[in-house]
Amino acid sequence: MGVVGLDIPAEPGMPLEDIATPALIIDLDAFERNVETLRQFITANGIRHRAHAKTHKSADIARYQMEKGGACGVCCQKVSEAQALIAAGIKDVLVSNQVIDKRQIAHLAEMARDARVIVCVDDAANVDALSEAAQKFGTTIECLVEIDVGSGRCGVEWGAPTTALAGKIAQSRGLKFSGLQAYQGSAQHKHTAVERKALIDVAIDQVRQTVAMLDAEGLPCDIIGGAGSGSYELETASSIYNELQCGSYIFMDADYGRVLDGNGKPKSDFENALFILTTVMSKTKPGLAICDAGLKVQSVDSGPPVVFDREDLEFMKCSDEHGVINDPADSLALGDKLKLIPGHCDPTCNIHDYYVGVRGDVVECLWPVTARGRAY
Amino acid sequence: MGVVGLDIPAEPGMPLEDIATPALIIDLDAFERNVETLRQFITANGIRHRAHAKTHKSADIARYQMEKGGACGVCCQKVSEAQALIAAGIKDVLVSNQVIDKRQIAHLAEMARDARVIVCVDDAANVDALSEAAQKFGTTIECLVEIDVGSGRCGVEWGAPTTALAGKIAQSRGLKFSGLQAYQGSAQHKHTAVERKALIDVAIDQVRQTVAMLDAEGLPCDIIGGAGSGSYELETASSIYNELQCGSYIFMDADYGRVLDGNGKPKSDFENALFILTTVMSKTKPGLAICDAGLKVQSVDSGPPVVFDREDLEFMKCSDEHGVINDPADSLALGDKLKLIPGHCDPTCNIHDYYVGVRGDVVECLWPVTARGRAY
């Protein structure tokens, strides 16, 4: 009957207009420019980049970051994510998080047969559990001690608590002490450069002193990792961090759009490459339009999306399947398409099964969100 | 090697403790009691119930609601959702939303070969497009005119605009005018009974007058539908609505937990049956515990989750993969499991691939979220 099924939102070759909405689309030109911008930065600065796959959960994008973007490997946050990426051929994976569950620890140890597997720890009993599993599977799990450099989340204190845990790892069979995880997550979205620098300066100082203490104890760090898309220039300039972990730089989002540079202008190193394509589905009231993008295609934890390239329109609020757009000039008509810049890219990508890769106004590829649903 | 894979979070027969977390779990006893409570209510009041599958997107749950819960059919919000449910054997589906996209309209028309298919309209040109597609496929699409009874979203005004659109449907080949969609969404979560009644009274009045006008024009309504889990008693008491559309009643959530009855007490018709099972993954700071449930397993649009049965603990905030819990007595230890009541059930279920059905402390079933990712 000639109608393309709705099990997928689009097919390569389709015009943009024919994508079933709401859909998550990537502007491939902008995405590729973002990857190239960071590649040039790490090359010029002689620092490694371990691309954070928590942003996209896509094997296609992870491979592109490693093959074209100079990434030395990937980070992810969950063992089941790592499994999906390793199964798709990624061979160097840091689970930049604690792994506590016995079944997940067993899988982590088993995966180390097929890939370099690194994990973060902040607890001595957890070190014992990891060691036991690695011995059982006859593998080596590399461990980073996570320092809480100010996020108030996971991680031990810098200095003595960190060196004690590092020493325990170094003495544990099946484990290798590989360095430090020192990610300052709460600095990434601080809007002013002064705020970001103040937080990262504290982190750098703690890391520098801890590395010196570890060196004195004969515990060198292969990886001193951290840094996100909002702060990576600062960690790089420290000369103590040696591995960046940027994720959002490939896509950007509305909240990153509010991050300013040292001159108080919007930071412009990366471009918006990720959008929710939406259709006006109801236009019955003056000054308002209802679109088909609600809470089931985006996370609004960091505020609503921004309508791309349409300063005359404001996305006001959304319910499960509807978005309410302020359209004061009544410029929108039923069926019109809009591109929304998601408020927060990572948890928005996490909801979708596919990225629709678009070049110009034509669909070029359909990339599955490989590790979708893999939250554990 | 004996380790159950991480492609699924659990297997039937497993103890609760072994579920890979974070996972979405259903307390099957509570779920079944909720379904039975509403069945008794509709039986006693002689009103139909078209269960809203937007809440759960699950064919297993939809079948249970029809076979055991007295539901006459289901609602859903998207054509691709309807496709997934019809393919799973559900034969009476209302897409309680506008369908604008040409490809989606074609699928809607085609699906009417295999099931009773009903859709909402609020635009005359959309009626023409639906009529054309139904004629092409040789099917009948039933149409409800959506009245905006106060939600400020989709829908035409009650009275003359509604009767005009109904008349146009009745005269369109391939379509059947089947009644009214009059759902007052913004009333559902109003916390006081007085607020809810004030809003629903307005809706009832508009519906009653419009139905009288339609009757006078020889346009009887087979379906006069609306009502959610927060207001269904009011629409039922009106004697003008004849089809309820409750969804959340099967699960409840933290925001529904703040809805009060006429005496100012928490409304107690339904119980919490849906939880996020989470594990304490880091405990390095006094007064705090970090759990593994963040933004990638829940929607926080209606606020954070509530820790079930633990008034001493408060879920403070979350980032992508972490939840920060206030634990003033330091009662939690690494590896402890907690049940979280999601802030908002529908967009939380939408993120997960599976429901883990639990009876007591044993996993009984694994239900796929059949229409997951079907946002279009």
In short:
Chain A has 376 residues and is an alpha/beta fold.
Q: Could you walk me through the main structural features you see in this protein, from its secondary elements to its overall organization?
A:
Two copies of one chain form a homodimer. Chain A is of the alpha/beta class and 376 residues long. Chain A folds into two domains: 112 residues, D-serine dehydratase-like domain (Lyase, Ornithine Decarboxylase, Chain A, domain 1, Beta Barrel); 224 residues, TIM Barrel. Helices cover 28% and strands 23% of the residues of chain A. Chain A contains nine helices and 17 strands. Chain A is globular. The model of chain A has no long low-confidence stretch (mean pLDDT 96). Chains A and B meet through helix 3, helix 4, helix 5 and strand 10 of A and helix 3, helix 4, helix 5 and strand 10 of B.
Short key terms for the protein model shown above:
globular, 8-stranded parallel barrel, 376 residues, 2 domains, homodimer, 28% helix, alpha/beta, Lyase, Ornithine Decarboxylase, Chain A, domain 1, 9 helices, TIM Barrel
Assembly form of the protein: homodimer
Determine the CATH topology of the largest domain in chain A. Answer: TIM Barrel
Q: Portion of residues in helices of chain A? A: 25-40%
Biggest interface pair, counts: A-B, 76 and 75 residues
Compile the SSE list and pairings:
Two copies of one chain form a homodimer.
Chain A: E1 23-27, H1 28-45, E2 48-52, H2 59-67, E3 73-76, H3 79-87, E4 92-95, H4 102-111, E5 116-121, H5 124-137, E6 141-146, H6 160-170, E7 175-181, H7 193-216, E8 223-226, H8 232-238, E9 243-244, E10 274-282, E11 288-291, E12 306-307, E13 314-318, E14 323-326, E15 337-341, H9 345-349, E16 354-359, E17 362-368
Parallel strand pairs in A: 1-16, 2-3, 2-9, 3-4, 4-5, 5-6, 6-7, 7-8, 8-9
Antiparallel strand pairs in A: 1-10, 10-11, 10-15, 11-14, 12-15, 13-14, 16-17
Helix pairs in contact in A: 3-4, 4-5
